[in-house]
Amino acid sequence: MPPARKRTRAYDPAKIRAAVTAQFGNVRRAVATLGPEQLALPTRLAGWTVRDLAAHVTMAVATVGRNLDRDEPSKADLTLLEWPFATASRATDIGDGTRDLAAGNPDLNALFARTEERFAEALATAPGGRLLAARTGAMTLADHLVTRTVELVVHTDDLNAAVPGLDIPYDRQALAAATRLLADALAARAPGGATEVRIPPYAVVQCVEGPRHTRGTPPNVVETDPLTWIRLATGRVTWPEAVAQAKVAASGERADLTALLPLMS
């Protein structure tokens, strides 16, 4: 018998809006402390400096206002769980746009301030059900904001990795939403009930075809922490690297997720 189809996870719109605002504020305050030498440091994104990456964070949030300015599409054509797999095709455009934005805005503090103000204005009157003509596909504002938690958490981690001691904090709701969306995307990519993936305290999903357990401890279990999971899902770390570093515990013959990762690249 095939596994029962699970309902799409629901996210509290008010909490997601607050999470995006809070995480963007965390990054803004941290970037304001960086000097020229730190902004010139390389990042783990090939060819991007810390300045480029910081500018890209504003792009990730500014898409909300830009999309609201566009005509509303007639229908949605991208679900939340499809979004992670739709981002790779835009990598070149995103890279070019990021470098142009960074070069054209030497005052990053001013860029962050404008972006934050425009974001607050855009959300003040826009309902969650408003459809956006996002470049990855038409989706609701509420869903688009969940994707912003992924962008912000991933790039917060990138900035922390690039600048020793920066230690930008993670808003709990933003980290939870990003973890859950990427965990659910894994389950969508590899539907089944043979393997249980645990990412405490935020998510547990079942995936991979094979014998489905009904009680007790599953025969195939993967467990990791939220940031390691997000790094795996976005290609910041490989499965063998995470296992070798004891960042992942995996048991069972169907617990190797190498072939399914990354989800985003």
Commentary on this structure:
- The protein is an alpha+beta fold and 265 residues long.
- The chain is 50% helix and 10% strand.
- The chain is built from ten helices and six strands, in the order ααααααββααβββααβ.
- It has helices at residues 13-31, 36-39, 50-69, 83-86, 91-104, 108-125, 141-162, 172-189, 226-233, 239-244; strands spanning 131-134, 137-140, 195-199, 203-207, 220-224, 248-251.
- The strands form two sheets. It has a four-stranded mixed beta sheet. The chain has a two-stranded antiparallel sheet with strand order 1-2.
- A hairpin with a 3-residue loop joins strand 3 and strand 4.
- Helix 3 runs parallel beside helix 6 (108-125) and helix 8 (172-189) packs across helix 9 (226-233).
- It is globular, with a radius of gyration of 19 Å.
- The two termini are 33 Å apart.
